[in-house]
Amino acid sequence: MTTSPDALSAESIGTRLDRLRWSGTHLSILMALGAGWLFDSLEVNLVGSVINPLSEHFQATVEQSSRIFWVWLLGVLFGALAGGVLADRFGRRRLFLVTLLWYSGFTVLTAASPNLEVLYVLRFLTALGVGAEYGIINAAIMEFMPARVRGRSAAAVMNFWSIGAIASGFIAFLLLNTFALASAVSWRYGFALGGILALLVLFFRRRLPESPRWLAAQGRVEEAEAILRRMERRAGVDPDASVPGDAPEAPATTHRSALAELVRRYPGRLLLGCVLDLSEAFGYYGLSALLSIVVLKQVHYTDAEIPFFFILGNVGALIGGIGMTLAFDRLGRRWSVGTFYALAATGIGVLAAATSTGDKGLVLAATMLANAVATGAWTAAYPTFTELFPTHLRAAGIGTSVAVGRIGAAYGALYLPTLAVQIGATASYVLIAAFWSVGAIAMIVWSVSGGVDGARQPLSALSAGARGPAGLSPSAGPLTK
């Protein structure tokens, strides 16, 4: 049975979620979402570790190898757009299960690719599922966690990406070294194993409840109430204790209506999400393709050594992400995002200098540093723009931002390696640093224009603004820590 949003009681869903003490339910949700993000990352990063034996097997040129990244990112683009709208329409939990089965199945099929053309198609189809996960995971973590720990929790989930990247390096290292498999089959075993392992996430996801905020926004108040009362009892809170109410949000049912409302009511917030994601995606995927296809060969890393390189590189990423997570809510969104994006641009400059020496050890150390600050940047960015969208538009807002970001990432991954071969790696590094700088500048503009800093703010307060360059009504003024 459903109830009209107008019937939402004074005991607001959002306010009651924010008053909860941390409990086993929160930890279970965090781990389930993190596990999904981990296997998404494992799937993505496995390609960087096995790209050389895969390319050798198919006798691929630099451009053909780059297209493996390109078609993947195009798939993420379309998956993010579709997944965001579907998650806002049909719910977070249902899409969690569908996307998991989708990308796991196509990852396994990728292992049997008979030629590059089929591999391109299967990578695109796999990426549709992974792209859909972006909006669902980021929306869900925001909607379950109390405001006081929302930033740290969201950033903690993002750090599972680095863990997945490290795991992919170990899998590739074992396949290329310990088992001494020929290049014709080593990468195939990697994809097959990655797809099968992803199914383990079903163990975590089958216990995930639907988001009470989403249910309330759809008018399904009784279902939201039942889930919330279970969470309250587990957190030791009296479900019948009265709290102030929040106004319900009306659901958007189509992609066109969702995007139209985002552009009309929250133009600055949508623009911020698009710019931050474009900046980090170009930087992250462009660098990954540049290193995998060009730089590591130039500094004489062997195929067997490359997985170990990425393992240590992602250890640096994990350290940087954890450091940002611990400081995120204390520093606030503006300082965290702006500072780490500027540091990411600087880190690329250090890596460019290290690459010019041709020294393998210096390139590894500089990559660890660049990954540390870059991961701090993007793990801060996702929670920052995710929390600015209202519940009924949140997944669509994330999906649109991610889609715009993947346009830049796709062409960065496609052309940066070719550019490096033609005129040297320095030009590619300069472009990557420039994109990271754009993100830092966007955060400065956001701050100067009175944009919202959502640290510790209730989600209902963040979505209350309506218009203006920052997505606020002219009289609202900025919300601060």
From TrEMBL:
PROSITE patterns: MFS, SUGAR_TRANSPORT_1. It comes from Microbispora amethystogenes. InterPro entries: MFS_dom, MFS_sugar_transport-like, MFS_trans_sf, Sugar_transporter_CS. Its main location: membrane. Pfam families: Sugar_tr. The chain crosses the membrane at residues 20-39, 68-87, 94-112, 118-141, 153-175, 187-204, 270-296, 308-328, 335-355, 361-381, 393-414, 426-448. Residues 29-451 form the Major facilitator superfamily (MFS) profile domain. CDD domains: MFS_SV2_like. Keywords: Membrane, Sugar transport, Transmembrane, Transmembrane helix, Transport. It is a multi-pass membrane protein. It is found in: Cell membrane. This is Sugar transporter.
